[in-house]
Each structure stands twice: as structure tokens, then as C-alpha cells.
Predict the 3D structure of the following.
Amino acid sequence: MTINQWKLRQLDVNNAFLNGHLDETVFIEQPPGFEEPKQPTHVCKLNRALYGLKQAPRASFQRLSTFLIVLGFQNSRADPSLFIYNHHGVLIYLHVYADDIVVTGNNEKFINMLTSRLHKEFKIKDLGLLNFFLGLEVTHTSSGLFLNQSKHAYDILSRAGLLDSKSVSTPLTSKDAFTTQGQPFHDPTLYRSLVGALQYLTITRLDLSYAVNQASQFLQQPTTTHFQLVKRIPRYVKGTLSQGLTFDRPPNTVLLGFSDADWARCLDTRRSTYGYCIYLGGNLVSWSAKKQPTVSHSSCESEYRAMANTAAEIIWLTNLLSELHALPQTRSTLLCDNKSALFLSQNPISHKRAKHINIDYHFVHELVTSGQLDTKFISTDQQVADIFTKSLPQPLFDKFRSMLRVGPPPSLH
């Protein structure tokens, strides 16, 4: 969207789950106040969906998708909730989430016609320019978009009782570590509620990703130590309440991925933590911070597995961009700061010495050989994905946060 400077329109479907036609036979009891006195034991057969019915979301989406396909849209294979119209020079993207629809494209007249057709079929409400979507606040700038969740962040501070607390400069200190040791926390529900709210905040505040990922691993049996560490995260949020993610019109459309892993980071299981971030023309489009499912024998192995996960995400993005008719002409590049892992991805001979690595991960080498992916070395001080693998000192944390394009609104720059 920012590449072509298209406008984002938001539509709302009135009573969305009541629009679906049921393919299954479903009976309900007679509603209170509408009983048939002569036949009190009879039940009602549903022809259309109702709120609370488990089939309702699927039935509603099925009817909407069928209608869009009749209009000439194609359902994306990479993202089932995305529909694409590409005929006679008209290119339209339409994304559906429950009763919310976002549409953009290169032909405003066609979008107006589409909105009118949808309104006749589903009672659509045109909300105009996109400004608030699923808790995300959207600010339109002269060069692109700014996304933030300041209202949600404020609600977290209020829920945690930290509105008057002193702010801190980082989500975790470089010495903080989540372990299984400690006294059980007296209110696990409060811990889970707070961490869950923070998880949703990471949609635009990816600088919280590592800290929230660590806290999420102890939802079952949190300790008092865990809760004290988690309380630091909202205190960091308080000092950066207005910050969010910036998208500008890029100078190119190159896919560039950063991959990193911290070997044996978990003190209890010795599993590694890995992270990646992927840019499209300088705008961040995908990122992740996770703990690897198995123990790695070496830092090379953990880095190589991280590269494989990043490569899989790049391939998915490539397929999505191909469907959007926006595929970059140049091949994607994956940057890693481990020379051994890079050598493993480029040299098939070394695979004989790495048979213990699951064969599924060797597809990275196949991507490099086929020319679909280019792997290069990057120094650790420029490895922005490092922010997803460990807690960093403030200067380095601030540097990588800026590289992720997380910061205050454009008007405050």
C-alpha cells in the first residue's frame, strides 16, 4: 500500500454472523417468549446462522467469499482471508477479519462500486479512511502510515496499577533471566492476564517481543520472581507510550531478512532462543522471537535452524507478494552473523558432518543453490535480530529499536 500510496478504506458488516447460510442441519429450542403453545415440545430448524453458534463464523465467511469470487476476486492461497481482484488494469486487495473489512487498490471508482454491491448484499457500513482496526490506531502521513496501540498500552498500565510508577529504559535488564526457581505466585490469573495483554501489544511494539516471549513460557506456574520481571515491561511501556511502527514509501521492494540465535539461552532446558525480522524495501513486514523446540549441539546448529525458519518465512512472503502482483525482481537476501552457519548453507560437502541436524532444515542450501535466496554475513553490531534473542544493554537496545522502525509518531520526530 505504501509503495503505491493507495488509500485504505474500512468497511463494517452489520450483524455479520447472521448472514451465513447453514449447510448443516441444526435445531434449537424454542426461544423464550416465542414458544408455540400448541406444540411446546417442538424445536426450531435453523436456516441461517445465529450468534453463539459454532458454525456461524465459517458460514458467514463462506457466503462473503462466494460473493467476492462471483465478482471476480480470487482467494489468496498464502492468506485465506485475503481476496485479490486483477482485471483490465484494476488491482484491488480486500482483507476480511470477522465483521471488519479493509480494502485498497488502484481504482477508487471500482472500490466505490464494490462497496455499493457489498452494501446491497450484506448491509455494509462504509467507515471511510482506515483509522482504527482491531485495537490498532492508524495514522496516515504524507509518506505512509504510522501504527500504534497507545490506548491498549494505557489500559495495560491501568490494569497493572502502574500508572504512577517510574518508567525504565528497557523491558528487561541484561542480567534478568526467567527460570523455574522461586515461590509460586499467589494469583496466576493476574499474571496470565497481564502477559496476554502484552502479547497483543507486540503487534506494533516488537521491541517487547523477547521479554514477552520469556514471560509467556511460565504461564502455567508463574513465580513471584516472574511477576516482578513482568511488571518491569509495563514500566518500560509507560516511558514509550506513544511509540509505534512506521511504514514509509520505500525506495525499492527488496526482501531482506535478518536471522539470529542465542545458543542454550534457556537455563532450565538449554534450548536456544532465535529471532528474525524481514524487511520489504526498508519497511518491517514480519518478525518473530521464539525458543527452539529441541536442544542444539552447537551455536552453528542453533543459528542454522534459525536461518531455516527465516527462509521459510521469506518463501511464504515471496508467494504472497507474487499473488499480490508485487514480487520483487531481485532475489531475497538472508543475513546472519555466524560464518559456520553460512558455510553450512552454501557448501553441501559440510552436510556430512552435520547429519544430526534434521534433514528438513537443509532446504536452505537448496534455496541458495536454486538462486531463490542469497545468504550473506553481517557483523553482530548490525544484527538487528539480536533484539529478539536476549535482553540487551540500553545503547544497543535503542539502536536496534530504531532499526526496527519503532519510535514516536512522525509529528513528534
